[in-house]
Amino acid sequence: IEAEARTRIAEADSLAALETLRVEYLGKQGSVSALLKTLGKMTPDERQEKGPKIQGLRQFVSDALSERKAMMEAALLDARLAEETLDLSLPEPASPKGSVHPVSQVMDELAEIFADLGFSVATGPEIEDDWYNFTALNMPESHPARAMHDTFYFPDKAPKGGKMLLRTHTSPVQVRTMMAEGAPLRIIAPGRVYRSDSDATHTPMFHQIEGLVIDRDIHLGHLKWTLETFLKAFFERDDIVLRLRPSYFPFTEPSVEVDVGYSMEKGRRVVGGSGDAPGHAWMEVLGSGMVNRRVIEMSGLDPDEWQGFAFGTGVDRLAMLKYGMDDLRAFFDGDVRWAAHYGFSG
Ligand code: PHE
Questions:
Q1: Which residues pair with 118 in a beta bridge?
Q2: Burial bucket for residue 26 (CB in 10 Å: 0-12, 13-18, 19+)
Q3: Is the beta carbon of 309 within 6 A of some atom in ligand 1?
Q4: Annotated binding-site ranges for Mg(2+)
Q5: Following DSSP, what letter does each residue of 112-172 receive, concatenated?
Q6: Does residue 171's CB lie within 6 angstroms of at least one atom of ligand 1?
Q7: In whole angstroms, how far apart are CA 178 and each of 10, 111, 127, 296, 307?
Q8: 136-142 long-range contacts, CB within 8 A, separation 24+
Q9: What is the distance, to the nearest Å, from the Cα of residue 199 to the centroid of all Cα atoms in its chain?
Q10: Interface ipTM
Q11: Higher pLDDT, 221 or 330
Q12: Quick one: the chain helix, strand, coil %, rounded to 5?
């Protein structure tokens, strides 16, 4: 048996053939197993003599099988390694890419433009105290302007009176920054604001950017120059024309609303030119004014020494205008197809 097994195992040419041989010799019905079974019926003397031989045969077949198996597996692996090469010219499978949201991008653009003008970025909490959001901005408790803000209130009492609320504008950051840093100041404050309002041009959460300059001898001319410079840089056009209209905000005096001229091109608003030119119209883009001396006072500064201007505008509106988007709600749906459509996806 041993000689026959040696040859057959050496000649086996596949793992399957080896397995067949294993069953044939060592399986339950195998020939070596059958020999092993005869040991039980032998006399002690016979067993003494044949036992070691049969055990040796079993060991031999078993060793020969595993040796051959290991050789064959090694050969198979070599063959596979020789055959499998990396094709570096294959195109990479497409993988989805993330990109910066238009609102974030516009906030970055604004921060960069204002950084060039010497403004730093200030922040304040979105869950705000009634006092910072209204009272310190010259809107005491029964002020009618409060009603225009559609405020989300929390049931919690605010430390400085009234209730806690979701800030309705970024203007409370004016007060917080003056109180924390004093004067002079040149800051912008971009961030989320909230009002209970929703349609194609209003969402309950939207983004504003506030600007504040506090210094000595600041006047309306500084405000006008700053806004003109910023809007030209933002829309990347030299022909931006501003119209300043007298307006009213409790926290600025005088207050000025700012319009830009635009025309319609292929159903899209394109900013540029005077709103009075043929085919053009005016569109309001921001609110501003000289900081009301009462606000400067409530923020802990002397209004006889320090003056300033402030402005506030909607970041989402600016993004819509710059990139020709038309439904504000789509900004916050999180549908990447929308972003991709306007070139905001990888
Ligand atoms: N906070 C005002 C608003 O939300 C905008 C504004 C800011 C107006 C600063 C004047 C000065 O409408």
A1: none
A2: middle
A3: no
A4: 253
A5: HHHHHTT-EE----SEEEHHHHTGGGT--TT-GGGGGG-PPEEEEEPTTSSEEEE-SSSTH
A6: yes
A7: 92, 19, 19, 8, 12
A8: 136/172, 136/175, 136/295, 136/298, 136/299, 137/171, 137/172, 137/174, 137/175, 137/250, 137/251, 137/295, 138/250, 138/251, 138/292, 138/294, 138/295, 138/298, 139/250, 139/251
A9: 25
A10: 0.98
A11: 221
A12: 45, 25, 30
Q: pLDDT tens for residues 88-99?
A: 888 888 877 788
Cβ 313 vs Cβ 286: under 8 Å: yes
Q: CA 343, CA 77: separation in Å to the nearest integer?
A: 49
Q: What is the pLDDT of residues 262-312, one digit of tens each?
A: 999 988 899 999 999 999 999 999 999 999 999 999 999 999 999 999 999
Q: Is the CB of 311 under 6 A from ligand 1?
A: yes
Is 70 exceeded by the pLDDT of residue 35? yes
Residue with tokens 């024309």: 241
Which atom, in ligand 1's list, is nearest to the CA of 137? Answer: 1
- Whether 174 lines ligand 1, by a CB cut-off of 6 Å, is no
CA of 141 to the centre of ligand 1 (A): 18
- 230: Cβ below 6 Å to ligand 1? no
Whether residue 273 has its Cβ less than 6 Å from ligand 1: no
The closest alpha carbon to 108, from 234, 231, 224, 212, belongs to: 234
Most informative mutation of 146, 165, 171, 245 for ligand 1 (most atoms within 8 A of CB): 171
The verdict on whether omega for the bond into residue 91 sits within 30 degrees of 0, i.e. cis, is no
| Residues 91-128: tens digit of each pLDDT | 888 877 788 899 999 999 999 999 999 999 999 999 99
Nearest Cα residue to 1 out of 40, 58, 52? 58
Please enumerate in sequence order all residues whose Cβ is within 8 A of that of 250, keeping only pairs 6 or more positions apart, or say none: 137, 138, 139, 143, 145, 292
**The tokens 């950051």 sit on which residue?**
173
Say how far apart CA 222 and CA 5 lie, in whole Å: 103
Mutate to test the pocket of ligand 1, among 169, 248, 286 (most ligand atoms within 8 A of CB): 169
Q: Say if ligand 1 is within 6 A of residue 289 CB.
A: yes
> What does the alpha-carbon distance between residue 206 and residue 316 come to, in Å, rounded to a whole number?
7
